[in-house]
Every structure is written in C-alpha cells, then in structure tokens.
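Posting this for the archive.
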Amino acid sequence: MCGWRRKPRAKVETLRKQAQDWVDHYGFSAWIKLQLGERAVSLIKDPTVETDLALLDGCYVLETDLPAAVADARTVHARYLSLPEIERDFRTMKTGQLELRPIFLRKAERTKGHALVTMLALKLVREVDRRVAPLGLTVTDAVARLQGVRLVALGDPELALWRLPDSYAPANRKSCRSCRLCLRQSCP
C-alpha cells in the first residue's frame, strides 16, 4: 500500500502516475496492476501471471539479425557463451601481459599490421596459458621462469657461438617441458 497520509494536499493521481511509471520502468506491468483508493494507490499482483512468469526464470532470448543459413540457434548460443572469453582476451591485450596501448597510425596497412601482431601475440599468450595451466602457473609466472633460461657462450662472445646449457633449475625445467621448448637432443 502506497499512500501520502502525511501530505494532505497531495493528489492521488500524481501518486498513481509515479507508481505506474515505476511499474512500467521495471517491466512489472504484465503481473502488477494499480488500484486507486481514496488517499492511496495499491499494487495488486496477479498470481496466475506471476506463476507463469516464474517458469521463465533463468531463461533468456538471444536475438540476432543474422539469417538462419549463416548461423543457426546453436551457433548463436555458442558465440554468446564465449563472450566472457572475448572480454578476457581484450583485458589481456589492453592491461594484461600484452599492454596494447592506443597507437595512432595514419595508414590502413600499418593499422592492420599492428592489429595482426597483437592478435598473434594473444594467440601465443593463450597457448602458453593452456600449456602451463596444468602446472598451476599463470602466464606471468611461466614467462618469469622462462626468463631464467639463458644461453651459454662457447669461447669468445665476439664469435657469437652460443648453446643452451646442459642443466636447468627444476622450475625452469617444468616450464620448458610444458611449453615444449626443448631445443637440444638432451632435453632438460
């Protein structure tokens, strides 16, 4: 029961209009009706409509402008369910490991190239994440461990003869195995 008992000059029609706007705004007009009293407006629920609407709790409708020949209902639903992954990828590109910042390029080819390199880097991040997840590592942890893998100089460094070391730390060994970074015959 909604009423303006404390305001003697208040108009019931104003209260009815405010209550109707509230009911319409929140989409309750199908199952809540307003009833005017002498100095009050009552909200009356229709129990049969409320029960019918309760059957749809948790259901949703996806609407698309794509023709059925292009994307059937299962495809549209699958794309909808993949939205959190897409949002996570954009977060990764903008603030995560890749830290893509706005770059103002004038030529379309350069913009396309920048987007291509970013998407390739995202694919690498996803692949590293997939491979190190069974170890309980994040991509940042795996990259930190892989930074511990160093080349060993053979002889004079000016000759530019390098090779991988014969042994690794256990943490580096696990990261290398999970990422399949075995470049020598005797894998760590």
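The mean pLDDT is 80. The beta strands are 2-3, 32-36, 40-45, 152-153, 162-163.
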